[in-house]
Specification:
The protein has 145 residues and is an alpha+beta fold. It is 23% helix and 14% strand. A hairpin with a 4-residue loop joins β3 (59-60) and β4. The longest helix has 19 residues, at 77-95.
């Protein structure tokens, strides 16, 4: 069995013309499913902002080149995003959620959907994870399996 992860990003060109991404999806997804592949839509949040090696934020050093000052890795933006998207699909299949380092945090650095908003003491552990829109990979009905 093969699994295909497809980014759900919306793209536009500098000339304000639509890109071929949606046309490609409308052709490719039904074709892949007709060949018995599993197709999962992936929210691309943080996919090109966090290092897949050490899981820290990266800095842009050229138009498409990123550098992680924490582990010293240089990587092309698209390769980093693809690596992180593979990790998202793998984590979703194994754990039913995104990898922790690719989940957004609030202004205090907390994962709000994992905490009981009414009662969080210094000694308490975060409550059971509740569903959030960030962990719903197949958000697009066309990609929902």
């Amino acid at each position: 069995m093969a699994v295909i992860g497809i980014g759900l990003g919306k793209f536009s060109s500098m000339s304000r013309l639509s890109t071929l991404h949606e046309s490609f999806l409308s052709y490719f997804v039904p074709l892949a499913r007709s060949l018995d592949y599993i197709v999962i839509g992936v929210n691309e949040y943080y996919s090109s902002k966090k290092c897949p090696v050490c899981e820290e934020f990266v800095a842009q050093v050229a138009i498409r080149r990123l550098y992680c000052s924490h582990c010293g890795v240089y990587m092309h933006r698209d390769i980093m995003a693809a690596d992180n998207m593979c990790r998202i699909v793998q984590s979703y299949l194994l754990q039913q959620r995104r990898p922790r380092y690719l989940q957004p945090v609030d202004e205090k650095g907390h994962y709000p959907w994992e905490e009981d908003c009414d009662y969080v003491s210094e000694n308490s552990v975060a409550s059971t994870t509740s569903p959030s829109q960030e962990t719903q990979l197949a958000a697009d009905p066309a990609l929902a399996q």
